Amino acid sequence: MKIKMKTLMAGPAGTRQPESVHDVSKKEADALISGGYAEAYVDRDLLAKAKEEAEAETVETAEAPPPPETAEQPKPKPRANLPAKVTRKGAKVGVKAKPKAKPKPAAKK
Length: 109
Fold this sequence. Notes:
Number of strands: 7
Strand content: 15-25%
Distance between the termini: 134 Å
Number of helices: 2
Helix content: 10-25%
Strand order of the largest sheet: 4-1-5
């Protein structure tokens, strides 16, 4: 079992500095923890790994991303104020042609 020392411990087996982590037997760990000289050590890496595994078991649902923004087509400008274009044949484009006058019927005698 791993313990983290709270105080200095010195003896024939060596010294243990405060804040140091040691792997000791269950019996020795229980004696040091109950005397207030050490505390049980929890490895943060193992704790983080266990937490990640627990989160991996949880099913996550994804939300659909919002639709992308699109640009609007510009509205066409009115052609009333634009000059008429003339084609090669002389016809004007963009100008309404005047209806041809109907020929008058010949007077009957």
